[in-house]
Amino acid sequence: MKNTDFIKGPVWKCILAQSVPMIIAQLVHLLYNVVDRIYLGHMGDSGAMALTGVGLTFPVATLIMAFAALFGTGGVPLFSIARGAGRDEDAKKILGNSFLLLLISSAALTAVFYIFKRPILFAFGASEESFVFANEYLRIYLAGAVFSALVTGLNGYINAQGFPKVGMLSVVIGAVVNIALDPLFIFGFEMGVSGAALATVIAQALSAVWVLSFLIGRKSQIHLERKYLKLEGRIFLDILKLGTSNFVMQGTTFLVQIACNATLQLYGGDLYVGVMTVTNSVRDIFMLPVSGITSGAGPVISYNYGAKRYDRVRSGIKFNTFIGLGYTVIAWLAVLIFPRFWFGIFSDDTALADIGIKLLQTYFFGFAFMSFQFAGQSAFQSLGDAKHAIIFSLLRKVVIVIPLTLLLPALGLGADGVFMAEPISNIVGGIACYLTMMLTVYRKLKTTDL
Q1: Helices (H) and strands (E) in the chain, counts
Q2: CB 101: neighbour CB atoms within 10 A?
């Protein structure tokens, strides 16, 4: 059987072996939504409004992902630590509990959003005109919420067993289908926004089938077995405890998206909401590699921590820091120097671009400091320090971004103030998170094997 103990060889090689397939997988996964936005943004006269409408549904997708992170990603470090300690039965119980929690939470969210769709979208910043497009997209997208949650929540258990290429295919399969179906449904069948949503649902369903097929199949080292599909209080609480930091990170993004769109609608209208949709899309592209590196490092760091190889844990944290910082500096310069190129990928609307290019540069100022947030947050998460992971998730978004998003426009900066909140939070939150990690969990790690 393939050795997946993450102990042999240089730590950076183990991390890259995990991360590269995950980055490719996340890149392809990003295409689920990004390709939709690209096609919709170039629909002619209705393109800008279609883009705005889809942007209003981002908080819905984010909240679904937040629960996937809570019950799926939250269990992966526990799963990896159990495997590293040789407790395979505990690992199976963690996987089974995670699966059930993902099913229950995604089904409940689907019902709530269907029932209260109209008031929710208007609370998110919709106007009567943009609601038409948001509603058209959301009513179909919600049908695939369960599939999306299962893929996002369970794929980490494939990667944690040392099968990152299989995890990559989980996303590639669905994304290829989505890319192929988008132009057919949007333009060929003239379904517009509905076509984009339908293509996404079909793609997510196929990805979910692939993930489940692997986890119950022969190649999986730790199987998803029927006898472990029952909730256990201790495991549920452990997953909840560690997954809360992931949930807070995604959940606070949900709140930030609502605050941004609602404030932009108040101070700038649909046009500025459309600019934020494009800005978020560009940010998603540039955040992907550094997110993939830290995500790939997670199982390696957790496994070595469980095996008491603390020297390798420190090496993993250092590698995350340096490669993340180098990449984010390059990404920041790319946006600063070529803003029109990145904005033009998602929209050819002149009115949107005229105000959006400057705001894109403003939003990305200080992007390099996100590397410290990722490295610090990843270390806390991988080592089971849920307390600090939660604190710094709340600090950056709830304590800094949301108040500034509401305050800066009211102080006379208008809609521009919304875009200034992000770089301030990146700098303050990133530095605070990383310094605390270095002075707490990193300092306590021993430099020799135990």
Answers
A1: 20, 0
A2: 25
Answer whether 174's CB lies under 8 Å from 207's CB: yes
Write down the domain spans for the chain: 11-444
**Residues in contact with 201: Cβ distance below 8 Å, sequence separation at least 6, in sequence order:** 140, 141, 143, 144, 147
Give me the phi and psi of 197, to 5 degrees please.
-65, -40
Q: Which two tokens stand for residue 10?
A: 């240089």
Task: Say whether pLDDT at 206 is over 90.
Answer: yes
Residue 65's closest CA among 304, 199, 252? Answer: 252
Residue 113 has pLDDT above 60, yes or no: yes
For 73, what's the count of Cα atoms within 13 Å in the CB-facing half-sphere? Answer: 25
- In eight-state DSSP terms, residue 30 is H
pTM of the entire predicted model: 0.78
Report residue 368's pLDDT band, with 50, 70 and 90 as the boundaries: very high
Which stretches of 75-124 are assigned E, i.e. beta strand? Answer: none
Tell me, what's the pLDDT at 3? 45
